[in-house]
Records
---
Amino acid sequence: MKTATQTSSETRSTTITTAPEELKLLKIELDKLELEKLKLSKILLYLQFIQLLIFIPLGVVLLVLLTRHWDKILQLLG
């Protein structure tokens, strides 16, 4: 049966890579993260566009209702 120190040292010896290999792996990971960031920013822009499509007409309708019933609103407010 192996002890914890033997197992961890064996694991460390198999995962140790040279600096250029580790740099290459880090660059690949960075590229993946940048692609994910681009995907998320595209989704964010789409959601902001949908938000504008919903809230601008809603604001216009609210403004029209306020102007049409302005005298009733003033009476309610006193």
Note: The longest helix spans residues 19-68.
---
Amino acid sequence: MIDCIRPDDWGQAGGVPGLRTEQVEDWLSRLASAGPAPGGGAAAAMHAAMAAALVEMVCNFTVGRPNYAEHESLVRRVCEEATELRRQAVELADADARAFTSVTEAYKLPKDSEHDRMTRSAAIQGALVMAAAVPVRTAEVASRVLELVERIIGRSNATVLSDLAVSASSAGAALASASVHVEVNRASINSPEVADRLGDAVARIEKAIESAHRISTDVRVRISRATPVAR
């Protein structure tokens, strides 16, 4: 994680609507528009949110079922953790939109004088670091969702096993998308120290992507071998 950036620093500026108060279709229309935000980074966070929600769904199909009583305590804990991760992911989608808006606003600053150019450059660099921090955090959330998927494979309702595969795939999409957005911001950041830290973050994300593929494959193999089970 980029430790110099805190969630509070993302702020509420820019007049960007929040996902918690917006209809899905309205958000998708904004995503499809020529507006600066939301974009791919926000979509990455929503992949992570959907991955977490699917873990919650599997847990809710498991809790209270006699066949899985021995795992109920674990499944309840996983469900609580997934709920929190879903909340964080939705917040990150909003944060990404705000961060990208800050970048575009920084590029609009005047550059007539030397002082203007220095001020503009500093604002751009600061905004880029903020914009890179969000997908790093999105990747961390997606990685934690994958850990939850692994914890309940074989300990949750077998009739919704396929949804764990979709969760892992969605988390993998979040990771891959986040990696791209870290890289694109890293390419424009002048600080070697920050660039190095972001490079390390990308390397960790790539390893997590491999885990997502492995977990998804594992679940699909289990599905192919499974005996149909009634809910």
Note: The radius of gyration is 20 Å.
---
Amino acid sequence: MTAITARIRKAQRVAIDAGGFNLRGVIYGDTKGRYRDGWFFYTAKVVAEIEPNVFRTATGNVYQVETWSAPSKPTNDYDSIPADWPYCASAE
């Protein structure tokens, strides 16, 4: 299992103009000591979902989403994006 940097509650996906998304929400258990529990924050761009509700960012941090805030929801609750969708890029 991957080491979790912190947990996010009331998480939402936020689109990035250049493509992709980041997460925002309330952070808890930051193992690097940068944020206090209960602070609202934004992550760097998400580059991969390595497990259900566990996301790696461009800065290498790994966040576990504990709860989602509407309209966002877990990845498996979204409809699949067709492979020929113009903005679809595979996560590597």
Note: The radius of gyration is 13 Å.
---
Amino acid sequence: MEWLDALKGVAIIAVVFGHSLLGYTENNAFGEYNDFFFQLKDWIYIWHMPFFMCLSGFSFSLAYYRDNKVDTLKVRKQILNLLLLYIMFSVLLYGLKISLAMFTDNKMSLGDALLNLFFPNTIMWYLWVLAAYYFILICCGKLVNVIAAKPWIILGFLFFAAVVQKTSENIVSWRLCFGNFTRLAFYFCLGIVLSINRDKLKSRRKGLVAAGIAVVAVHCIYYVKWTGTYRVFDSVTNEFIATLIVLLMFEAASVYHGRCGLPPAIGRASLVIYLLHTYMVTAMKVVCIRMGLCSSLLMDVVVVVLSAVMPIAICYFVDFVRRKNRVIGMIFSPVGFVQIK
């Protein structure tokens, strides 16, 4: 589906931009504008992984759910694929973090690396959580049918769980794997529901869409400029905004007619981009900060854009090569069953 690849492209671009902003703001690289970019990064973080996980749920239903049954054999092979990718790239990431500690913000010891391998607190959490969702869905064979039959009940409960998880972050130190497993289950199941009911979601309500865009725009301005103390209702608001953005993205995709081939092309490379971009974003950050390139608002914007665009371009080239070379291709699909197309 071209439109689904386009949505994946938008999602992975948001992920890379968010991580690019994270590296610079953690180092106070933007001076007087650092608070602005920090708030912008936090706003992107509200919705970029919920959107990505919703697409994962949609793709799961599309690929493995047929005639009210989950194809458990295919799902088992994909779980193995995810776990092998997780182990390989986790070992690579932790090895680089330990050996190149002088260039990293979050130092890691060997003990931290071993703990992270079982319970990730780094970017690798996504593969861990996705494999866990897949495992639950094949162990509870009728769960997808329950989600399809009673979507409002299931989604209502999981939305409540997401709000509780985000609210509790002020008093509980969640590891990323457990916190995101709890919060993003709502969005994964939302993706399943959207996929199952995709033929019923074709009606377009331009007035509601315009109102939704206005709400998101107001929230973005409010969030980026507001620096007050945390309040509990913000968790509810943020989850609502994340859900609204996801639905607006799907609505936008419903009118997508391939006017621009770039988002789908990036979307098809989203796995490779997700696995590799963090190394390049970190390298760009180190170089730009040491060269003192963040010297004005204009240069700050240029640096952030380049720190996202260049890793995406390099990863896209790697994805192109792995599609032509079977040996390199096996690195990103070790089981050899599920091909990212």
Note: The beta strands are 65-66, 69-70.
